[in-house]
């Protein structure tokens, strides 16, 4: 809120209703697409991933759940942008991509993949499937043993 008070007038345009709103070129300024706190959190997670955006995108395109692992897939789900953020990232022109921060750049690359976060959910399900089945087997056998007369 305070940042909006000190923004240069050149970055604002007047709408027909007289209310001022930021220009649509907001994606050209670094870290302006995502909330600054969310952007920082995503940047920290990206450093912890030890994987490049190209490796992540290739694994998502190829459906290689085992190459990413469940922890990385869970982190990717936490990074999912809101609908508004997704629209802003998709609207960014290619010449403005170089001005995006690391978090926005990563998300823009991931969003270029069709149904990227649905793929992440499916891959996470595949990765965790065997663990879930084993858990259900042990819990059902435990309940059978405890209910046996």
UniProtKB/TrEMBL annotation:
Principal cellular location given in the protein's record: membrane
Gene Ontology annotations for the cellular component aspect, listed alphabetically: membrane
UniProt subcellular location: Membrane
MF annotations from Gene Ontology: actin filament binding
GO biological process, one term: actin nucleation
Keywords: Membrane, Signal, Transmembrane, Transmembrane helix
Domain FH2 stretches: 1-149
UniProt xrefs under Pfam families: FH2
Topological relation to the membrane, as annotated: Single-pass membrane protein
InterPro entries found in the cross-reference section: FH2_Formin, FH2_Formin_sf, Formin-like_plant
Family statement: Belongs to the formin-like family. Class-I subfamily.
Name of the featured protein: FH2 domain-containing protein
Native species: Zea mays (Maize)
């Amino acid at each position: 809120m305070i940042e909006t008070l000190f923004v240069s007038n050149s970055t604002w345009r007047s709408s027909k209703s007289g209310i001022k709103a930021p220009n649509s070129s907001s994606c050209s300024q670094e870290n302006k697409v995502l909330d600054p706190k969310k952007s920082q959190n995503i940047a920290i997670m990206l450093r912890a991933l030890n994987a490049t955006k190209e490796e992540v995108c290739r694994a998502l395109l190829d459906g290689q759940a085992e190459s990413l692992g469940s922890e990385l897939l869970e982190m990717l789900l936490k990074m999912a942008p809101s609908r508004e953020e997704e629209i802003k990232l998709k609207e960014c022109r290619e010449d403005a991509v170089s001005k995006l921060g690391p978090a926005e750049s990563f998300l823009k690359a991931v969003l270029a993949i069709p149904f990227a976060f649905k793929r992440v959910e499916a891959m996470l399900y595949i990765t965790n499937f065997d663990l879930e089945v084993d858990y259900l087997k042990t819990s059902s056998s435990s309940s059978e043993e405890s209910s046996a007369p």
